[in-house]
Automatic annotation (TrEMBL), chain A:
Signal sequence region: none
Keywords from the UniProt entry: Oxidoreductase
EC number: 1.2.4.4
The name this protein goes by in its record: 3-methyl-2-oxobutanoate dehydrogenase (2-methylpropanoyl-transferring)
CDD domains noted in UniProt: TPP_PYR_E1-PDHc-beta_like (cd07036)
Gene it is expressed from: BCKDHB
Family annotation (Gene3D superfamilies): 3.40.50.920, 3.40.50.970
GO biological process: branched-chain amino acid catabolic process; response to nutrient
GO molecular function: branched-chain 2-oxo acid dehydrogenase activity
Automatic annotation (TrEMBL), chain B:
Keyword Transit peptide (UniProt): yes
Annotated keywords: Metal-binding, Mitochondrion, Oxidoreductase, Potassium, Thiamine pyrophosphate, Transit peptide
Domain called Dehydrogenase E1 component: residue spans: 106-412
Protein name, per record: 2-oxoisovalerate dehydrogenase subunit alpha
GO CC list: mitochondrial matrix
Length: 369, 453
């Protein structure tokens, strides 16, 4: 797993070799040169490239948050973490390999700046990382845990679902771990295969008590991550790994917040509502422009941003307007989060709505006598 | 790493460093080896140097093939202060606690015992849904609780009510939680015995305990370790204690907790109540090593095994562990050997898997309460008359709290929806309103009179 991560790092580094910035030598053995040649050479490769691709579409430079700087997504994450540790003396960052900067370089420079008691490696144990983070948060300190790949979050599933999510509820609000944030690289990257590409948001969507957030860009990532860190509920922040380097835009240097549980209509339209999150937002944007150009169809594009609790109102309002909904996600179809969106929209966006009947409540299942 | 090798050479130790080694390390300013900067690990050595250079272990070479034999015939010895008749064995180990304090030990243990009897019965009579007794383990709770500061954070499993009892958690609140009534701080959400108290620094008990759920206990070492790390950073002079049974110690979370506590140098006491059974599973089916204490050194954790039915042994060990955990920022593991005299819970009948004779032995021959009573009596601090009075008094106190708890209503049903998040999201509010509407129409089918309006 660590080897795969290291390989992933090197491959990603090569693709973005032209992007500039500082390059710290990664320690350890080098790989044979041939293995590291970029796959861009040759016509076959080019054809293959066209089949599965997306083009990151940066948003216009934000003007309301002060001075901005060109940042890619991992740099935006570093900036958010830097802001958090500067503002909040209790904040600590921990996980596998975060000390030297992280396998995706999200924590570069932070240990030197804030000290080894605030940015530190843990043993290789996701259930331990999350359990430990819960404990820090229970005392009121801010815990920012990194899971090296979302694919490896499952050993921590019990801690997240049975402990973190239910801490406040089961204690009658005597205790909580709201100051816990878990970050993990998420989603397809092209060469990640089974265990470096997963999008597990649907597993967590079924868990009341936590928030799950997926940004589409560096600007969104920094603002949403800061909101997660400051949110008084345990949050999982999934970072689309393919965007770490591929997404570059102007991002404010100072801290700012993008609200959670608010979807964003990034393009208005009248014929169909397209909903996506993370990397897929860029695919969907391209689809929207193709649909306009080739079919004369006007698409309304929504970036969901927060998976739970999700912004039902914005999506329903849009579907009431357009009358059609398409949800697109990388995760497997069956039981994917699109099913939750489509079934909720179908029951709530009816013009003549019936009340009551088969509700199942978004609660943890308390004991009632 | 270079420092350790140097230290080992200086001291000539071939099996790890021992006390002197640790002192040397401290003087050299090296705290933990796990968090050394990569550059410090580079050593200058030549191929002429025949000593091992592996970063992963500090050891000598051996040219004889030998497996280390796990020692389970004569395991880690069990520290005790009193014999089974409550007589001090080695006077220098007697903590010489004042009468008032020892009486508090005794009264906490016996009050807990009385409350257990009454609440167990109340479950049998259908008044509460579930209960777990603490019979036989009162010494582990009270001895350890007494050795801590009142502000030390406690993470329990579910059989540590004596810790709360020692911290003067009122009977009214024990009852309120078991009845899930309107006075329950937990708002009626959890099964009985899932106590929690922020004021007394006792984190709310978690873990699904319904017997159908095979998941078993959530050992909480992870969160406890994190809390200890935060306490260390805050210079809080606080220790965290984490209680768990020998069964829970099999969970992966226990392994994670031990390893993190050691590598991250956390001031935490891991307190294992080894009571012989995890529901019906005896220790012979739970582990093959020398109990839990033997695992500590594998993680680099200072460890001890004590007689859990000897409240002074528990007290002494916990006291010293606490002192050193805070002073040295390192974890301690205490394995308190004891015996679960009662059933696992009201959903269990232990005669299905153990003999009545076995249980009787512990109840009659080696009980923490009797041993302490003998000690008290031999000091002239207690007698049969006081025993009779106290039994009556404690029973009366418990019955009063019990009757009051029974009369109170349950919390309002709208509390089903709060505290899922800090703020109530729109969907939850809709669901809360939907329940209210449902009850308006169909309320007659629900026992609404038992719930607060």
């Amino acid at each position: 797993m660590a080897v795969a991560a290291a390989i992933a790092c090197r491959l990603l580094r090569l693709h973005a070799a032209g992007a500039g910035g500082h390059w710290r030598r990664l320690r350890g053995a080098g790989l044979p040169r041939g293995f590291l040649q970029p796959a861009s050479a040759g016509e076959d490769a080019a054809q293959w490239r066209r089949v599965a691709h997306f083009t990151f579409q940066p948003d216009p430079e934000p003007l309301e948050y002060g001075q901005t700087q060109k940042m890619n997504l991992f740099q935006a994450v570093t900036s958010a973490l830097d802001n958090s540790l500067a503002k909040d003396p209790t904040a600590v960052i921990f996980g596998e390999d975060v000390a030297f900067g992280g396998v995706f370089r999200c924590t570069v420079g932070l240990r030197d700046k804030y000290g080894k008691d605030r940015v530190f490696n843990t043993p290789l144990c996701e259930q331990g990382i999350v359990g430990f983070g819960i404990g820090i948060a229970v005392t009121g300190a801010t815990a920012i845990a990194e899971i090296q790949f979302a694919d490896y979050i499952f050993p921590a599933f019990d801690q997240i679902v049975n402990e973190a999510a239910k801490y406040r509820y089961r204690s009658g609000d005597l205790f909580n771990c709201g100051s816990l944030t878990i970050r993990a690289p998420w989603g397809c990257v092209g060469h990640g295969a089974v265990y470096h590409s997963q999008s597990p948001e649907a597993f967590f969507a079924h868990c009341p008590g936590i928030k799950v957030v997926v940004p589409r860009s560096p600007f969104q990532a920094k603002g949403l991550l800061l909101s997660c860190i400051e949110d008084k509920n345990p949050c999982i922040f999934f970072e689309p790994k393919i965007l770490y380097r591929a997404a570059v835009e102007q991002v404010p240097v100072e801290p700012y917040n993008i609200p959670l549980s608010q979807a964003e209509v990034i393009q208005e339209g009248s014929d169909v509502t397209l909903v996506a999150w993370g990397t897929q937002v860029h695919v969907i944007r391209e689809v929207a422009s193709m649909a306009q150009e080739k079919l004369g169809v006007s698409c309304e594009v929504i970036d969901l941003r927060t998976i739970i609790p999700w912004d039902v109102d914005t999506v329903c309002k849009s579907v009431i307007k357009t009358g059609r909904l398409l949800v697109s996600h990388e995760a497997p179809l069956t039981g994917g989060f699109a099913s939750e969106i489509s079934s909720t929209v179908q029951s709530e966006a009816k013009l003549e709505k019936e009340t009551g009947s088969s509700d199942s409540w978004l609660i943890c299942g308390p004991l009632t006598r | 790493m270079a420092v350790v090798t140097a230290a080992a050479r200086v001291l000539g130790s071939s099996r790890g460093l021992g006390q002197d080694g640790l002192l040397l390390l401290r003087r050299l300013g090296v705290r933990g080896l796990a968090i050394s900067h990569p550059q410090r690990q580079q050593q200058h050595f030549s191929s002429l140097d025949d000593k091992p250079q592996f970063p992963g272990a500090s050891a000598e070479f051996i040219d004889k093939l030998e497996f280390i034999q796990p020692n389970v015939i004569s395991g880690i010895p069990i520290y005790r202060v009193m014999d089974r008749q409550g007589q001090i064995i080695n006077p220098s180990e007697d903590p010489n606690l004042p009468q008032e304090k020892v009486l508090k030990f005794y009264k906490s243990m016996t009050l807990l015992n009385t409350m257990d009897r009454i609440l167990y019965e109340s479950q049998r009579q259908g008044r509460i849904s579930f209960y777990m007794t603490n019979y036989g383990e009162e010494g582990t709770h009270v001895g350890s609780a007494a050795a801590l500061d009142n502000t030390d954070l406690v993470f329990g499993q579910y059989r540590e009510a004596g810790v709360l009892m020692y911290r003067d958690y009122p009977l009214e609140l024990f009852m309120a939680q078991c009845y899930g009534n309107v006075s329950d701080l937990g708002k009626g959400r959890q099964m009985p015995v899932h106590y929690g108290c922020k004021e007394r620094h006792f984190v709310t008990i978690s873990s699904p305990l319904a017997t159908q759920i095979p998941q078993g206990e959530d050992a909480l070492p992870g969160p406890a370790v994190g809390a200890a790390y935060a306490a260390k950073r805050a210079n809080a002079n606080r220790v965290v204690i984490c209680y768990f049974g020998e069964g829970a110690a099999s969970e992966g979370d226990a392994h994670a907790g031990f390893n993190f506590a050691a590598t991250l140098e956390c001031p935490i006491i891991f307190f294992c109540r080894n009571n012989g059974y995890a529901i019906s599973t005896p220790t012979s089916e739970q582990y093959r090593g020398d109990g839990i204490a033997a695992r500590g050194p594998g993680y680099g954790i200072m460890s001890i095994r004590v007689d859990g039915n000897d409240v002074f042994a528990v007290y002494n060990a916990t006291k010293e562990a606490r002192r050193r955990a805070v002073a040295e920022n390192q974890p301690f593991l205490i394995e308190a050997m004891t015996y679960r005299i009662g059933h696992h819970s009201t959903s269990d009948d232990s005669s299905a898997y153990r003999s009545v004779d076995e249980v009787n032995y512990w109840d009659k021959q080696d009980h923490p309460i009797s041993r302490l009573r003998h000690y008290l009596q031999s000091r002239g601090w207690w007698d049969d008359e006081q025993e009779k009075d106290w039994r009556k008094q404690s029973r009366k106190k418990v019955m009063e709290a019990f009757e009051q708890a029974e009369r109170k209503p349950k919390p309002n049903f709208s509390l089903l929806f709060s505290d899922v998040y800090q703020e109530m999201p729109a969907q939850l509010r809709k669901q809360q309103e939907s329940l209210a509407r449902h009850l308006q129409t169909y309320g007659e089918h629900y026992p609404l009179d038992h719930f607060e309006k």
